[in-house]
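Case study 2.
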Amino acid sequence: MDKVIAKDTTVDKAIRKGLDLLGVDSHEANIVVISEGKKGIFGFGQKEAVVEITRKEIRDFDEPSDIQLAEIEETVEDIVEDLEEDYPETAEKILADQPEIDRVIYSDEDAEHFPEDYDEESGRDEAIAAVTAYLTSVAEAYGAPAIVTVEEKNNMLIFQMESEKAGLLIGKYGKIVNALQILAQALVQRYVRRRLSVIVNVGDYRERRAAVLESIADRTAERVIKTKQPVFLEPLPAFERKQIHARLSQNKRIKTHSEGKEPHRYLVVEIAD
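Prediction:
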């Protein structure tokens, strides 16, 4: 048995039940929260939490870099599928006429992709130009024309989009701008050998979101310390999980780790041993 659907009164209990059924630890499984359940009132309207737990497939990698490439590829595939399901019209515009996105990760047959005389600075400049053009065309196609500027600092490329229709580019719960960021990151890696982190911001969305994440982190820490029970946060993009982890890493009384598979990967916060 490689996959189970587990149900219980809380997400925590459902996860533990599913792990026991598979006979694996949390780090050996991909966990997807299907439903967080509902407490109900006086026993009426109560709904069980439901989780899907799949045993992880063990893959062999020749080089450490292969792991990173595989993770990027899986993330792109998952975020595209998620986008196509929730925003079909937007997804069509975001993905249209972008062959680079279809083949984000270069294969062995693409050896000429990085020729022997490859120049890192030229590659970075090409990446910036490609992503800027891509984001500009997407905003135009989506009916939210935007001016795109870029800043490079601390091994990070920050693409800033300014539009009078910023809400369209952000999307509900930031899903559109997060998808654009994942695809932009993937596109950059087509041009640059070294790892460059990419941030796509629309207006001041990232700053406002960072404040929200800090608040979530602080409230979660208080809850875990008070109850001594782990808390499973809602699925978040990797860079947002890192923000919460960074905030909580300052508190030595708790620890964090991620579980599940992108784009449904989530953070678990628990008491430190």
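Residues 254 and 271 are 4 Å apart (CA to CA).
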